[in-house]
Amino acid sequence: FSVLASQRRSDPLLAPHFAALDGPVDLLELYCSIHAHWFPKLSCPPIAWGRHLSPKRRRHIRFAAYHRRPAARIVVSRLLDQPWVAREFVAYVLYHELCHHAQACDPVRGETPHSARFKAWEARYPRFGELLAWEKAHLDRFLAAPTNPSVGEQTTVAGSSPTREHRPPGQ
After folding, report:
1. Are 97 and 1 contacting, i.e. CB atoms less than 8 angstroms apart?
2. N or C: which end of the chain has fewer CB within 10 A?
3. Could you give the strand order of the β-sheet that contains 64-67, starting from the edge strand earlier in sequence?
4. Using CA atoms, how far apart are residues 73 and 69, in angstroms rounded to an integer?
5. What pLDDT score was predicted for residue 115?
6. Residue 116: its pLDDT value, please?
7. What is the pTM of this model?
């Protein structure tokens, strides 16, 4: 899940309101909640915080990434672990990455990562449009976010063994 600096800018005062984190995000709790609610029969790939933030000015933001190989896993950017970030936006990013996992568990030959099927799943998330508006309104703040030198290598937060059953969202 990423965005270019030249995309999606708007006024934060016009953005929908969502509750801020007001402290470190409990990634495990949020991830398990999203997984249990939307993807209960899908295997649960491990999730980890990404490496520390680069000191360079950003022109591109990747909020999270789903990696299929060598084994399924989700890596979440430390940009999302800031007190002003909306908890619901972090939950949506995790949902987005789990949609990629659902897509990988039920592959369609020639399907692109953000196919029509994927976009249909993603659009089912509550307040989807408002969350995109929130992201757009806060893009400059994400781009200007300070680095966090105290954070080192990736830290695994959660994982589980795969199951054989899977069910894409809403099915």
Report:
1. yes
2. C
3. 64-67, 73-76, 47-49, 155-158
4. 8
5. 92
6. 92
7. 0.77
Each residue's pLDDT tens digit, 77-88? 988 988 889 999
Query: Whose CA is closest to 127, among 75, 166, 87?
Result: 87
Those residues whose C-beta lies under 8 Å from the C-beta of residue 96, and which sit 6 or more positions away, are: 1, 64, 122, 125
Residues of the chain with pLDDT under 70: 1-17, 21-23, 52-58, 146-171
Phi, then psi, of 28 in degrees rounded to 5: -60, -50
CB-hemisphere CA count at 13 Å for 78?
A: 18
Query: What residues contact 21, with CB distance under 8 A and at least 6 apart?
Result: 81, 82, 83, 84, 85, 86, 87, 90
Here the tokens at position 78 are 């430390």
CA–CA dist 79, 3 (Å, integer): 13
pLDDT reported for residue 112 = 87
Kindly report, residue by residue over 24-42, the tens digit of the pLDDT. Answer: 778 999 999 999 999 999 9
At 62, is the secondary structure helix, strand, or coil?
A: strand
Distance of CA 81 to the CA centre of its chain: 12
Amino acid code (one letter) for 63 = F
